[in-house]
Amino acid sequence: xxxxxxxxxxxxxxxxxxxxxxxxxxxxxxxxxxxxxxxxxxxxxxxxxxxxxxxxxxxxxxxxxxxxxxxxxxxxxxxxxxxxxxxxxxxxxxxxxxxxxxxxxxxxxxxxxxxxxxxxxxxxxxxxxxxxxxxxxxxxxxxxxxxxxxxxxxxxxxxxxxxxxxxxxxxxxxxxxxxxxxxxxxxxxxxxxxxxxxxxxxxxxxxxxxxxxxxxxxxxxxxxxxxxxxxxxxxxxxxxxxxxxxxxxxxxxxxxxxxxxxxxxxxxxxxxxxxxxxxxxxxxxxxxxxxxxxxxxxxxxxxxxxxxxxxxxxxxxxxxxxxxxxxxxxxxxxxxxxxxxxxxxxxxxxxxxxxxxxxxxxxxxxxxxxxxxxxxxxxxxxxxxxxxxxxxxxxxxxxxxxxxxxxxxxxxxxxxxxxxxxxxxxxxxxx
Length: 431
Prior knowledge:
Elements lengths: L1 E6 L4 E9 H16 L14 H31 L9 E7 L3 E9 L13 E8 L2 H14 L2 E5 L8 E10 L2 E14 L7 H7 L7 E7 L13 E15 L5 H5 L7 H36 L6 H19 L14 H20 L6 H12 L5 H9 L2 H23 L1 E8 H5 L5
Helix pairs in contact: 1-2, 6-11, 7-8, 9-10, 9-11
C-alpha cells in the first residue's frame, strides 16, 4: 500500500491511497468460490454452477463489497501509518484503476496540535457572597408573597393591589385580536400589562367604568399594533389587597418543615440561599476560567466537529421547545458560534486533562452527586440511587473530570476575591 499526504489547509489533509489490484482480485475470487458452493441459479444444481456463471451473476456486487471494505480498512491503516488524527469521517473521491493498483483520495480534517501556554496568567474575579439578616428577611417576605391571599376592599386601587376588570380595546374604532378580556386580574406595579394600561387602573373602585388610552411601543411584538394608540373601555369588578401569612409554625409546615418550627425554617432558608449563591459563584468562576483558557490559547478547530456540535445543539433546542418537525427547528446557523466555542473548549480541556493526568476522584464524584440531589427531601436515598445507576454515573463522571480541570486552572491562575452582598449579586445576570 502506497500513501501520500498533502496539507490543503490549516487542518485539512488530502491523502491518496494506492492498493495493489492483486489484493482486491484475490478477495473477490475467494468470495466468488464461497458463493459458488451455495448459489442457486436456474438450470444448475447447487454447488455445480460454473465459475463464469457465478462471476456473471454475483461478480459486480461482490467486487463493490470488497472495494468498500478494502477502502475502509486501508484508510484506517493509512491514518495509523501516517500518524494522523482525523476529526470526523473522510470524503472519498477520485477512485481509479490502472490495472496494477486501485487508488482513491480521502479528504478530511485532523485534530489540531494543542500546546497549552500562559495558564498561570488566567485572571479570575471570585465573588465572596455575604448573607445578612436583612437578606434572610427579604427572602422570607418573598416566600410569604408566594403564599399570599387576596381580600376585597372598598376603596380606590393603589400600587400592590389587584384590580379585576373587563376591558375592550379598539384602534381607530376597530376591535383587534387579543384586545378584550373578562374578569382579568391585574396586580398594579408588577408590569403585567403595558405601563399606560396599569396607570389607568390606579384609583379605581368596584363598579367604576373608565376609558383609557394606551400607547403601544414601536417594537411591540404585534406589528399591526406597534406604535399605535388604543382606547380601552374598562369595567371594574373589584379591588383586592394582598394578605400575607404570618411567620409562624403553620407557615413553616406549608414548606414541609414539620419539626423545629420557624427556627428550623429560617435555618433551612438560609442554607438554601447559601447553596444558590455557591452555585452562581461556581458558574461565574467557571465561565471566567474557560474564557481565560480560550483567550490564552486560541486554536483552529475542525469544522466537521463544529457542524456535528451544531446539529447536536439544534436537537437539544428542539427537545426543550417540544418541537418534532425539523422544518420548525431553530436555524442551524444560530448555533455556529456557541458550537465553535464548545469544540474549542473540549479540545483544550482534553489536552489539559491528558497533560495533568486528571482522573475521576471518587470523593469529588460523590460530592457532585450530593449537590445534584440536595434539593430532594430524601436526598440521601437519591444519592445512593444515583451512585448505583451506571447510566447516570456515565454522564456524571465526565462532568466531574472537567470540573477537576477547571479547579486545576483556578488553583494555578490569578484569583482576586471580591466581597459582594447577596441581594446585589443574585440579581446580576451570570457572567
